[in-house]
Amino acid sequence: MASVAASEVSSRPGGERGRWVLPIFPTVMIGIFFVVPFALIVAVSVAHQNPAGYYEPAFELTHFRRFLSSIFINTALFSVGVSALVACICLVLGFPFTYFITRLARRHQVFWLVYILAQLSLSEVLIAFAWQVLLSKTAGVANILVWLGLLERSVSFYPSFGAVLLALTYLVLPFSVLILYPALSRLEPDVTEAARTLGASPLRTFFTVVVPILRPAIVATGITMFVFTLGAVLVPQVLGRPSHWTLSVLITDQAIFQSNMPFAAALAIFLLTLSMALVGVTMWINKRAEIKT
Amino acid sequence: MSRLLRNLYMGVIAVILIAPLVVIAGISLNATKFLSFPPKGYSLRWYVEIFADSGWFGALQNSLIVATGSAALAVSIALPIAYCLWRYRIFYARVLFSLGVTPFVLPPVIMALAFLLFFTTVEVHGKMINVVLAHGIFLTALPLITVSLGLESVQREMIEAGQTLGADDVTVFRTVTLPIVRPYMISGFAFAFVLSLNEYIIAFMTVGFTVETLPIKIFNALRYGYTPVMASVAVVFILVNVLIFGLIARFGDLPKLLGAWSARDE
Lengths: 293, 266
Known about the structure:
heterodimer, A: 293 residues, mainly alpha, MetI-like fold, B: 266 residues, 13 helices, 77% helix
């Protein structure tokens, strides 16, 4: 028994107990507070909504059918469109930025990472608030433009689509940096050096060597940013008009202010399916990239 | 030349990232009650107000309690899962791992709705424990990832050596594994703490009308009337974020936690 391999050790009586005892607490917690609530969404999405604002157990697809009616489909299409746009902008801005960070000394990398992390954990409430101030008539950039003589008098730049887009990009950009960071930091400097030695310009090296190698990471990051933007609730509400609402806002509104739980649940299932499909694609891409290397 | 361009680019992004925060910091020092930037006269009264006004101070207390409780819960759920996966390599642990990560990956409004439906069904309304549980489940992913990363750096030979010398699993865990994993548990706790502190939609949907956390309080102020305290609270938030991530960086290996690789790690 003196030299048992690690995998065999666990089959000893002493190791057996932990195997059975340790998962109990996580199982109970995840079971009660994740699996059950989740099943409730599914159950409620087919429940019957009575006019008094309560729902009762039933099996009907009215809420899904209602979702497919024009107004709500527009919201869904808008959500998808704006999320795709934000994901693209974040990749274009974030990729070079992350690349530069990974080429710095480790000590300087830490500084930038703290900078990005502090930004990223910033509540969406604060981001919406900050941009509301920045785009406002009384205290915003418009005043600077007036001072520069570019505007006649101060105006408010929100509510507008531009304001929503700007704040969403601001919200998601730090995430794109953080998700690209591992892939980029694993890029061997030898690869780019080889290209440089062979006479490629830095820009050419970047586009013909760095980008192709990291294509899977770029696609995966883009999709993650997309899902993340879909989750924004406050920015579209604070900085946009009702026509700029996303699915997340609509779900909140239906659940809290319209007290239509079944409809909110049906919308949530649509959002869930969409995100899960996309997360699945990301995982598949990552798996494939892992096998390749 | 390319170096100059690089620094310029990084500088511009850094400025854009910080600009809104500068504006908030500016208006938080405003002497008047009305929104204006640049500030008209300077004063720290809006910082004093956070502690003097019982509404804001109560929200601050709520947020701190919720963040501490949910981060502790997240770590206590994550640690056994990560350990089982690493130590016993059982399939069931892999299932738990996936379930533990999922809530964080989905758009938060889905979990918010799930928790709302759950707490209405079991008829526990608006208690602080609701949001502690909800955040704990939502944020389990973070300590799960950091602790798993930490366990990977424990050498299995050391575990075997401990067992050869007659130590049981518990003793080996306490004397060999735990000391190596502890910094990763602390970072997982810190990540979860910060994210809970900043989280809005789940807190709003579970307890929004009874327990005010800081983000809820700020949003209500945003909707129903501006007060400069919003800005001073925001500045406090940003400082807390920077402080906590600075501490993680100081006592842990931040690039490694975030998935960077270097020759040094191998």
